[in-house]
Design brief:
The chain is α/β, with parallel strands linked by helices. About 50% of the residues lie in helices and about 10% in strands. It starts with a helix and ends with a helix.
């Protein structure tokens, strides 16, 4: 590791974290835009929020600019197009259940013919403002709810009675769009995952005329979805297990591991296992994003020293030198040392101090590199677009998800498991009562 990083990272990261946070005012010169694709399932979810959002925008941001692209981008994390498509459909189904979006029980990608018809309807309509946004939502419903008969009828009317319109707030282009997003002052916000962050920003800049009410079932950090003692005992009795696949050079790995260990593991009796991955170059991260997430999760962060590949190799060697039953705690201590104490474990003195703190008499003779590659392979088989990757097992079911954006799913899954359990028990009791009446 360069001496510059070893000496200056801790100083710079502490200064960056502690400096007075003066909120940058984002420019509204180009208004607020939403970038969509008709064949993108996240665009479908976003479209259901647009009329309500536009309704509370102040005049400075009206009308909301809608930009519809016909081109997708390359799937993330080396996923195939099919893997990405399946992931999106499953993820959107989870989001729709959590946030009460309208969604088909067995979603499918719209047909090519339907997409052409939908675009023609939207290009030709003379509707503007909220009327257009309601039409946009209806067209997305037709595409994703398999209402192709309605779509054909509307297409026939639009193609026969209207010509393509040219409105500055409605743009059709071929820009590569992976998933729907908003754009304000050249800053991008995921259309669903960052919607609350966007509305907080709009409210801070006094760009809303009323309080935003979106994603009301959102689970805030450090708040528990299950607080009833009986329900809590039910979940604890199911002995949930959670596997974490983490890149050691990624600060999000520390924030996620620390949050789950401190806030969820003991509370729900979750058995945690950690699978470190080989170096993925994620030490070149967005400092402001990591800092913001640290403050949102209330997890200590900085002073840190960004690990290089050499440092992650040493971190993994320490981890696999610890007895298996102690590895979870060991990983917490290792990441804590790197991300809150500025340790550089490629430096011998730092490494030796960490080795002493872990009470290691000798280091493993196992092939650590082979272990990391094995973890990489297991992680790749989960077909997830981002790190960290989480696999939760409870009540005979397995759930796979990823990143800090989906940590709320742990508690949501627990709640759904209880709901299903109570539903089955009620049906069983009713069945027994019916049998007794017949006798």
């Amino acid at each position: 590791m360069s001496l510059l990083r070893r000496w200056f990272d801790p100083l710079r990261s502490s200064w960056f974290y502690d400096k007075p946070s003066r909120q940058e005012v984002l420019s509204t010169d180009n208004g607020l835009s939403v970038h969509l694709r008709l064949d993108d399932v996240y665009s479908y979810l976003a479209a259901q929020q647009l009329p309500a959002l536009e309704d509370i925008l102040n005049d400075e941001l009206k009308p909301l600019r809608v930009i519809i692209s016909s081109q997708t981008a390359e799937p993330p994390n080396h996923m195939s197009a099919e893997e990405w498509q399946n992931y999106c459909l499953n993820d959107a189904k989870i989001l729709s259940r959590q946030h009460r979006f309208s969604f088909h029980e067995t979603p499918e990608q719209p047909t090519a013919e339907a997409l052409v018809q939908a675009e023609t309807i939207l290009r030709n309509t003379p509707l503007r403002g909220q009327d257009f946004l309601y039409l946009l939502e209806d067209v997305f419903h037709m595409l994703w709810q398999k209402q192709y008969g309605k779509l054909r009828t509307l297409y026939a009317m639009a193609s026969q009675h209207h010509q393509p319109q040219d409105f500055p707030e409605r743009i059709f282009n071929d820009d590569a769009v992976l998933a729907a997003y908003f754009e304000l002052g050249e800053r991008k916000y995921h259309a669903v995952d960052d919607l609350l962050r966007l509305t907080r920003r709009l409210k801070q800049q006094k760009l809303l005329t009323d309080n935003p009410i979106f994603l009301i079932n959102h689970i805030e950090w450090r708040e528990h979805l299950i607080s009833d003692a009986e329900e809590l005992n039910e979940i604890q009795g199911l002995d949930p297990e959670l596997d974490l696949y983490i890149a050691l050079e990624d600060p999000i790995s520390w924030l996620l591991l620390a949050y789950i260990r401190e806030e969820l593991a003991n509370y729900y009796n979750i058995q945690l296992r950690v699978y470190p991955l080989s170096y993925h170059g994620r030490d070149l991260f967005d400092w402001s994003l990591a800092t913001r997430l640290s403050k949102r999760t209330d997890v200590k962060f900085t002073p840190f020293c960004r690990p290089t590949q050499a440092a992650t190799d040493e971190m993994a060697r320490l981890f696999y030198s610890v007895p298996e039953e102690q590895r979870m705690d060991a990983m917490y201590s290792i990441l804590q040392a790197v991300w809150t104490k500025g340790r550089d474990l490629s430096c011998k003195s730092h490494f030796d101090r960490m080795k002493q703190e872990l009470e290691l008499q000798q280091l493993t003779e196992d092939d650590v590199e082979a272990r990391l590659k094995e973890n990489d392979m297991l992680c790749e088989m989960k077909s997830q677009p981002d790190f960290p990757v989480l696999e939760l097992r409870i009540d005979g079911q397995t759930y796979v998800f990823n990143s800090l954006y989906r940590v709320w799913m742990i508690e949501s899954i627990f709640s759904n498991v209880l709901e299903e359990k109570y539903k089955n028990e009620t049906e069983t009791e009713q069945g027994q009562q019916n049998e007794e009446r017949e006798v």
